């Protein structure tokens, strides 16, 4: 109860200058996080340099909740690479392995077929209606590294948004009531 | 300075930093491993070499597919032919495993060139090796995936069989490499 009393006291004794200073430092933290994210996007050449695995279609290699680091270079796409791609009409990107590549002579355009390691059939069922192959512009990046379990934080926050609100509320309260 | 909140925060931050450091070191230790894998692939038999009803060249094992009509199973574009082959695959991939390896994904792909396409790579068979004990193997199998070409260019075609492996670590950077075995040829005529 003493803690609650202290909190109430500190909310009452907030000064404007102190509040502004805290606001600025919070803003600095948020913007430096954004700068790091954008720098990562530039560095890896991919729109989302880190993705979370959402389904079990690549088990036992990648389980739900793992995070993947992506990199996109202009190297041609070859079989065996694990790529992250977007299908027109689906908002969630899919992480599967390339099993077939056909590269045109003159233009170097590729047509690619993917399959999840744990799936029985290839991904033609997942592609858009009538689409048989993926092209380069569908592919957002290649998976180059991975960390297990860390992605569960994101999955929990997406599937149970109440936890997100509780966390942000608690952080906000901490910022307001901390003395420095 | 000594409240529960501060202490919990310090412990958590320290814990996460050390964990991240350990993951990075585990991944870097993989670089010290110099693998020497070896493999041999023999084609025992070309079971089938046919032009598909739609036209694409395809090599496949009909024992798997003959319950499902081909056109319904997966739509192939209008010109294709089919091939089915049985392969003997021997490989010793034990040197790829380190303490940080979770599994090795191995697959065999056929590579060839056609007038329309500079490179075609078609995966024929794959497997997951979960542990070092299973990394030295011999397998005799028909191709798991349909060997289809975009067109009817496979008669008398020379192709390479490449054995690819993809090392998936417990944490960190993934490595992939391949062994190219050239010198295979498809028959001149459909049969």
From TrEMBL, chain A:
Domain of life: Eukaryota
Stored SUPFAM superfamilies: LexA/Signal peptidase (SSF51306)
Spans traversing the lipid bilayer: 20-40, 139-156, 162-178
Reaction catalyzed: Cleavage of hydrophobic, N-terminal signal or leader sequences from secreted and periplasmic proteins
Membrane topology of this protein: Single-pass type II membrane protein
GO molecular function, one term: signal peptidase activity
Main location: endoplasmic reticulum
Enzyme Commission code(s) on record: 3.4.21.89
Subcellular location: Endoplasmic reticulum membrane
Biological process according to GO: signal peptide processing
Coiled-coil boundaries: none
Pfam families named in the record: Peptidase_S24
Domain Peptidase S24/S26A/S26B/S26C, first and last residues per copy: 37-114
Record's GO cellular component terms: signal peptidase complex
Alphabetical UniProt keywords: Hydrolase, Membrane, Protease, Signal-anchor, Transmembrane, Transmembrane helix
Record's function text: Catalytic component of the signal peptidase complex (SPC) which catalyzes the cleavage of N-terminal signal sequences from nascent proteins as they are translocated into the lumen of the endoplasmic reticulum. Specifically cleaves N-terminal signal peptides that contain a hydrophobic alpha-helix (h-region) shorter than 18-20 amino acids.
NCBIfam families: sigpep_I_arch
Family listed: Belongs to the peptidase S26B family.
Official protein name in the record: Signal peptidase complex catalytic subunit SEC11
TrEMBL record, chain B:
Family stated for the protein in its record: Belongs to the SPCS3 family.
Biological processes per GO annotation: protein targeting to ER; signal peptide processing
UniProt keyword list: Endoplasmic reticulum, Membrane, Signal-anchor, Transmembrane, Transmembrane helix
Keyword Mitochondrion part of the UniProt annotation: no
Lineage of origin: Eukaryota, Viridiplantae, Streptophyta, Embryophyta, Tracheophyta
Name recorded for this polypeptide: Signal peptidase complex subunit 3
Localization, UniProt: Endoplasmic reticulum membrane
Lineage top rank: taxon: Eukaryota
InterPro entries: SPC3
Matches recorded under Pfam families: SPC22
Membrane topology: Single-pass type II membrane protein
GO cellular component annotations of the record: signal peptidase complex
Role: Essential component of the signal peptidase complex (SPC) which catalyzes the cleavage of N-terminal signal sequences from nascent proteins as they are translocated into the lumen of the endoplasmic reticulum. Essential for the SPC catalytic activity, possibly by stabilizing and positioning the active center of the complex close to the lumenal surface.
């Amino acid at each position: 109860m003493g803690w609650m009393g202290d909190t109430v006291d500190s909310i009452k004794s907030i000064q404007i200058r102190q509040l502004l200073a805290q606001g600025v430092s919070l803003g600095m933290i948020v913007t430096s996080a954004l700068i790091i994210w954008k720098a990562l996007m530039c560095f890896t050449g991919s729109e989302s340099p880190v993705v979370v695995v959402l389904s079990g279609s690549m088990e036992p290699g990648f389980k739900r909740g793992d995070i993947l680091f992506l990199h996109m270079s202009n190297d041609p796409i070859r079989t065996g690479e694990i790529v992250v791609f977007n299908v027109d009409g689906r908002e969630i990107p899919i992480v599967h392995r390339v099993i077939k590549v056909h590269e045109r002579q003159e233009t170097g355009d590729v047509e690619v077929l993917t399959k999840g390691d744990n799936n029985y059939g290839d991904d033609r069922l997942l592609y858009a209606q009538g689409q048989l192959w993926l092209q380069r512009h569908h592919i957002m990046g290649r998976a180059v590294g991975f960390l297990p379990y860390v992605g569960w934080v994101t999955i929990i926050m997406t599937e149970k948004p109440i936890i997100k609100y509780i966390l942000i509320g608690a952080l906000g309260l901490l910022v307001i009531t901390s003395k420095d | 300075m000594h409240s529960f909140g501060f202490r919990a925060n310090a412990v958590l931050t320290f814990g996460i930093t050390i964990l991240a450091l350990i993951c990075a070191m585990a991944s870097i230790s993989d670089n010290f491993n110099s693998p020497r894998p070896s493999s041999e692939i023999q084609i025992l038999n070309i079971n089938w070499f046919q032009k598909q009803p739609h036209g694409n060249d395809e090599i496949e094992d009909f024992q798997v597919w003959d319950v499902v009509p081909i056109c319904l199973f997966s739509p192939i574009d209008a010109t294709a032919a089919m091939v089915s082959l049985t392969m003997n695959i021997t490989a010793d991939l034990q040197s790829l495993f380190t303490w940080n390896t979770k599994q090795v994904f191995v697959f065999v792909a056929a590579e060839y060139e056609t007038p329309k396409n500079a490179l075609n790579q078609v995966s024929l068979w794959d497997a997951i090796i979960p542990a070092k004990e299973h990394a030295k193997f011999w397998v005799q199998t028909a191709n798991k995936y349909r060997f289809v070409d975009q067109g009817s260019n496979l008669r008398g075609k020379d192709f390479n069989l490449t054995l690819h492996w993809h090392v998936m670590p417990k944490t960190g950077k993934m490595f992939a490499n391949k062994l190219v075995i050239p010198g295979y040829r498809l028959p001149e005529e459909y049969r």
